[in-house]
Specification:
alpha/beta; Udp-n-acetylmuramoylalanyl-d-glutamate--2,6- Diaminopimelate Ligase, Chain: A, domain 1; 3 domains; six-stranded mixed beta sheet; five-stranded mixed beta sheet; elongated
């Protein structure tokens, strides 16, 4: 998920990433949903999922206590008991390249796409160097990778290995892997270097200590200079369509892409061909309002924001908050399958908006 939607790109107010669980837990089955509801939780238990990837964070506001008195907290308690991890990408996925808003705008037609609000989603990175006996390097490298180190773009297990000689002398309480306590020793070692998101440092260091044969593995952690993302990312998208379309044609494309029979449309006083369309999944008023476009596509907007758009002759298509998010889950599941094919990525069937039509 750090490859698909770096958590550094999330909004400051958001709560994203691993919200419950241990990175060292085994993962064979995962369930994707927008909202972790009791129905989705029951589905996850039946599917024997070890991870729930919930787009909206089930833990958003700080918790002062965790009891069975609230339905959401009961789910969290049960998840902890069953060792089911919970991960939320939320706004990190919104802004990411090929993320939710890129998927949303894709169904509206061919054209040049840009972000509305620029944001650099490159995670803060460090480099971890550890000195390992040659025979143990593969084991330690794999442990570090399993904890989140060594990912560069679409590549895993990225490392640099340089040979050298380490020296040490243990005291009378030491139990060295090489040589004897109290004696000066020389050991042939490999300097193993891997990059790592700053948010994963604790897990990677713990993985090194668990897999390394030495009592006291020598490690260095270096902060890295910020490297800009290859392409600018940010909230929302604007597409400059190659061919202008009518509002009716745009509405048809939106409904087809989202799999909806009905949407709400605010029509401007003057009908005109539409070339620039701005989109933002969920509640998009804060991103879209004031954007230079002839039409907006989002989930929901306040009444007064709709009035403002109408006065500026901007058409608005409201498809429902989660209805702009949920249809993207199969796309995310496929991307995860491509990265981790041994994991079964299942999209929830019980996940539904609270106001679903009968």
């Amino acid at each position: 998920m750090e490859t698909i939607a770096p958590t550094a790109g999330a909004e400051d107010w958001d709560n994203v990433g691993l919200l419950l669980g241990d990175p060292r837990w085994t993962l064979n089955r995962a369930l994707l949903c927008i909202d972790l509801t009791p129905a989705v939780w029951d589905e996850a238990v039946r599917a024997r999922a070890q991870l729930i990837l919930a787009y909206h964070p089930p833990i958003f506001q700080p918790l002062k206590k965790l009891t069975a008195g609230h339905w959401q907290q009961r789910l969290l308690l049960d998840a902890a008991r069953r060792r089911v991890a919970i991960y939320s990408p939320h706004t990190a996925l919104d802004v990411a390249e090929q993320g939710l808003n890129d998927w949303l705008v894709r169904g509206l037609g061919q054209g040049k796409v840009r972000a509305i609000q620029s944001a650099d989603a490159t995670p803060v990175m460090v480099k971890i160097a550890v000195f390992v006996p040659r025979e143990q390097v593969d084991r330690v490298r794999q442990a570090m990778a399993d904890a989140g180190a060594g990912v560069i773009g679409h590549y895993r297990l990225c490392s640099f290995n340089s040979p050298g000689e380490g020296t040490f002398q243990g005291d009378d309480q030491a139990n060295p892997f090489v040589g004897r306590a109290g004696r000066f020793e020389r050991a042939s070692e490999i300097r193993l270097e891997m990059v790592c998101p700053q948010s994963h440092v604790a897990a990677v260091v713990a993985a090194v200590r668990a897999s390394h044969p030495y009592e006291e593995p020598a490690m260095d952690v270096y902060p890295l200079q910020h490297v800009p993302a290859k392409q600018p990312r940010g909230q929302g998208r604007v597409v400059e369509l190659d061919k202008p379309v009518s509002l009716a044609a745009l509405v048809h494309r939106a409904k087809k892409h989202l799999g909806l029979r009905h949407v709400d449309v605010t029509r401007p006083a003057k009908a005109r061909p539409i070339r620039r369309v701005a989109v933002c999944a969920g509640a998009g008023a804060s991103v879209l309002c004031g954007c230079d476009a002839e039409a907006y596509l989002t989930g929901e907007m306040r009444h007064h924001d709709l009035l403002d758009a109408a006065q500026r002759d901007v058409a608005v298509i409201l498809a429902g908050h989660t209805q702009t998010e949920r249809p993207s889950l199969p796309h995310l599941a496929q991307r995860l399958t491509n990265l981790l094919p041994k994991v079964r990525w299942q999209v929830s069937k019980a996940d539904a908006p609270p106001n679903a039509q009968a």
